[in-house]
């Protein structure tokens, strides 16, 4: 027996410090998880079987997890319960469950989980989308909602037209770069509204910074990221530690994120000081900052950090999803020329070919609204959205939902509801004919979120893509390109990404429908320069 302590000492001495730390950490995790497992399980909603300790972690791998959630929903129901390393997760697969919990009980379902990696290490903590609640969240939400009120939206019409006409010219001049033009469109619009800044091309420095930050943020997903959120103590792990790649990457990304929020703001401040600034959200907020008086009120007083993150979130949250939507539209037009032709005929009859489509034409173009709604449903740019968190124990349909449960909206499952959308994988705008005020149309809006977390820029974003898409249809032909043998090349229609879905790059042929269409676009752009 006396040899055992000596043997243990030699064994420990042979281990690397990192191995000892991970061993101790694993032991702590094991104790925590086993202590939870030892308790009598409450009546949770149904869900797939769980492994000891890991729970459902092993099953939640792969890029398109929303597909797995949808499959489970058909077996276990529209409210699914999962556990990952002892943490509770509920997936809502139906519109009814989302309305019942996230809207009717929004007071306890509107918080966010603690995003250790994104919020605390990468610098997204003060962004409206990720804020957990409190005075700063309410202040940011109020300001953003004011910027997208009905009165504010009217003031953006001129900028919307300008960016649409610029994009049409870009596509006409370089149709092979249509992906870049689709990315530049939302960037140009939002940077102008937020900072009064004109984006001239996709190589613009502010666009490049934001793209780098977004790309590296997406890359941060993986086992290290999940562990960091499950066990916040890992954020204190030294970056040089052998297993701390997630920490090194997070700190690198943090510099990009802070630059994304700060660089355009500093540009606008310089314009204000020079007396050359144009009216925009940042200018309005800086004026408020410089003229406010009285004591500090966290729910009302503006500081520079507020301005950086209020303006920055508009770009971070709005460009990637809009780009995804526009690329889905282009893909659908390539794959379904009959839909494009029908939409062109409707626009020709209503608008003619002497001018471009305007917002006032929308009520007279019902079929094109069906197309927009079906692109949104079929493409589903944000299949899961940002998680909610339950702030207190709750009960739903007789099932127990514990405090701190992470709640996910499976918009993919909602927009694939076979009762509302027969043959859901088929692209069919006619499914909305006579139903634009029905449940079928309303449930597509699940993509924009629910309750207090619904996207405040929904109406603005829809108007932007509607005007651009309508004018592309009015003036352009979009066709399959051909290979070296002259055979048409049909895109495979595949998507990549999980948080925001993007159509895989695909070739197509884009050209003006006529010289008259080209002249109309160029003349209209000249008038609005």
TrEMBL record:
Heme binds at residue 455. The keyword Heme applies. One of its GO terms (molecular function) is heme binding. InterPro entries: Cyt_P450 (IPR001128), Cyt_P450_CS (IPR017972), Cyt_P450_E_grp-I (IPR002401), Cyt_P450_sf (IPR036396), Cytochrome_P450_fung (IPR050364). Pathway: Secondary metabolite biosynthesis. It comes from the Eukaryota. The keyword Ubl conjugation does not apply. Its cofactor is heme. Keywords: Heme, Iron, Metal-binding, Monooxygenase, Oxidoreductase. Belongs to the cytochrome P450 family. This is Cytochrome P450. It comes from Thelephora terrestris. The lineage of its organism: Eukaryota, Fungi, Dikarya, Basidiomycota, Agaricomycotina.
